[in-house]
Design brief:
Layout lengths: L2 H6 L2 H24 L16 H6 L1 H4 L3 E13 L3 E8 L2 E8 H4 L1 H7 L7 E10 L5 E12 L15 H6 L1 H7 L2 H22 L3 E2 L5 E2 L11 E4 L4 E5 L4 H9 L4 E9 L11 E10 L3 H20 L3 E4 L2 E4 L5 E4 H9 L10 H10 L11 H12 L8 E4 L11 E2 L2 E5 L1 E6 L2 E8 L4 H16 L10 H8 L5 E7 H9 L19
Parallel strand pairs: 3-5, 6-10, 14-15
Antiparallel strand pairs: 1-2, 1-4, 2-3, 4-5, 7-9, 8-9, 10-11, 11-20, 12-13, 15-18, 16-17, 18-19, 19-20
Helix pairs in contact: 9-11, 9-17, 12-14, 13-14, 15-16
Length: 504
């Protein structure tokens, strides 16, 4: 069926044609099975080299034998000889298949194969008269039958919804997509390598939690039948990791999934990947250095430089990153000096309303309003890497207060390209203060705030045994991958993003 016919057909004709194509492929499979040549019965294949290696090492490999395996993506039929494109995990290689070389019977079977079929080729490496590096086939074998036709080349898989739902098809038809996920793997490896080299121990903590703690977020709720107990998918591993610091594991990290029952957009997915690390005997300044090293190191790993381009904007990830207090940032970008009405909640609310911020609530404290103004007026201004430091205590229930300004905490968030990439504290290790902070969160929860934190008695008990001064840091892996692969949406860096089910 030609491209022109497919494009010009009515939906009814296309449905009929697709049905016919599906039946033809199944008939071919049935014929093979009747001949005792069921491709699905094959258990192994020979693969001595990949396509990219052939291209990279052609000078030394020319005229040597090889065995390759992959998916047949195109065919150029010249009668008793064909050129096909075979795609494997590393890319594309051209294969020359001639009847005189593979045998008349094998060639006749080959001519019945379809685009999308998985095949094995044994032959030798050569360059065609047109100069293209290729494999000259001596033996060919069908390994697996594709019963569904691939999207047609020029009008193929462009719809993003289909691409996200059927990522396997996206990877077949759009090979460049694979590069994003290869880079993702390298970014994660880079982070692990750095932390391991610095004496951190990778650990695993529970994903099913009795108490949803460690972050301000709405949890997913599930039920344990044997215990007849509601449980929560973790929103953060923080409280477990800090228990390990109490236990004497001075440097720990966990790289894994968190789950938050919140909105979905180009920056948010209900399940996402984070690295959280905790280090005894340091503070949030030490965490700034860790964050710079992690991000700059990952950039060098996958891009070879710390100067990158994201969505058309040049970003410099070279340490050190800029630092600015939240109060100074709000003053710079909104004109409001929150120091001038510190302790006067009503004045803070009135000032924010004067800026046209409608989300101000009558029960908001000074620190809550400061954070709201920051979110509304400042975040969109933070393009280059910037540590926003010294957050108000009201929104930092797990963070140590600043000794010379107890209304503030030793906390930072890292912003790049107008997005938060990391969150870090000098960890609160005062069990009495921590209880008071938890109790304030519990009061907010009773008022209907589903994102407020729960009181964790066992964690308080751990703190009462004594936790050393500690710095903690969390960095969102998905957003970091977005930055380093120039991806607009978080769905572009998740192999299988959460999707609303299709209506049947």
């Amino acid at each position: 069926m030609s491209e022109t016919k497919e494009v010009n057909q009515s939906p009814e004709q296309e449905t009929q044609s697709l049905s016919e194509l599906l039946q033809i492929r199944r008939d071919k499979l049935g014929e093979l099975q009747a001949q005792g040549k069921d491709p699905f019965a094959i258990t192994t294949a020979e693969q001595t080299i990949h396509a990219a290696d052939i291209a990279a090492r052609f000078e030394e490999l020319e005229n040597t034998d090889c065995a390759i395996a992959g998916r047949m993506m195109t065919r150029r039929d010249m009668g008793k000889a064909n050129f096909i494109d075979l795609h494997d995990a590393t890319g594309r290689i051209q294969v020359y298949v001639r009847m005189n070389d593979v045998g008349e019977e094998a060639f006749a079977q080959f001519k019945k194969w379809d685009l999308g079929d998985l095949i094995e080729v044994k032959g030798f490496i050569f360059r065609t008269r047109r100069g293209e590096i290729s494999v000259h086939a001596k033996e060919i074998r069908l390994l697996s039958k594709s019963l569904l036709p691939l999207p047609e080349k020029f009008h193929g898989l462009k719809d993003t919804d289909t691409r996200y739902r059927q990522r396997y098809l996206d990877l077949i038809v759009n090979p460049e997509v694979k590069d994003t996920f290869l880079k993702r793997s390298r970014i994660i490896s880079s982070i692990r390598r750095y932390l391991d080299s610095q004496g951190f121990v990778e650990v695993e903590t529970p994903i099913l939690n009795v108490i949803a703690g460690g972050a301000t977020a709405r949890p997913f709720v599930t039920h344990h039948n044997t215990l007849d107990l509601d449980m929560y998918l973790r929103i953060a591993p923080e409280l477990y990791l800090k228990r390990l610091i109490v236990g004497g594991m001075e440097r720990v990290y966990e790289l894994g999934r968190n789950f938050r029952n919140e909105g979905m957009d180009v920056r948010h997915n209900p399940e996402f990947t984070m690295v959280e690390l905790y280090e005894a005997f340091t503070d949030y300044h030490g965490m700034m250095e860790r964050a710079e090293n992690l991000i700059a190191g990952a950039a060098k790993e996958v891009l070879g430089t710390t100067k990158i381009t994201y969505q058309g904007e040049e970003i410099d990830l070279t340490p050190p990153f800029a630092r600015m207090t939240m109060i100074d940032a709000v003053k710079k970008f909104s004109g409001l000096d929150f120091d001038s009405f510190r302790g006067d909640d009503a004045a803070a609310r009135a000032a924010a309303k004067g800026l046209g911020i409608e989300e101000v609530k009558d029960d908001m404290a000074w620190g809550d309003v400061l954070n709201l103004v920051f979110e509304e007026k400042v975040e969109e201004q933070l393009v280059q890497p910037t540590f926003i430091i010294d957050y108000p205590v009201e929104i930092s229930p797990l963070t140590k207060r600043k000794p010379d300004a107890p209304h503030l905490t030793e906390r930072f968030e890292l912003f790049i390209v107008r997005r938060e990439f990391g969150n870090a504290y000098s960890e609160l290790n005062d069990p009495i203060d921590q209880r008071a902070r938890f109790e304030r969160q519990a009061a907010l929860r009773e008022k209907g705030d589903d994102e407020a934190q729960m009181l964790d008695e066992d964690f308080l008990t751990a703190l009462e045994y004594g936790m050393p001064p500690t710095g903690g840091l969390g960095i969102g892996i998905d957003r970091l991958v977005m930055l380093l692969t120039d991806s607009y949406s978080i769905r572009d860096v998740l192999l299988f993003p959460t999707m609303k089910p299709l209506e049947k």
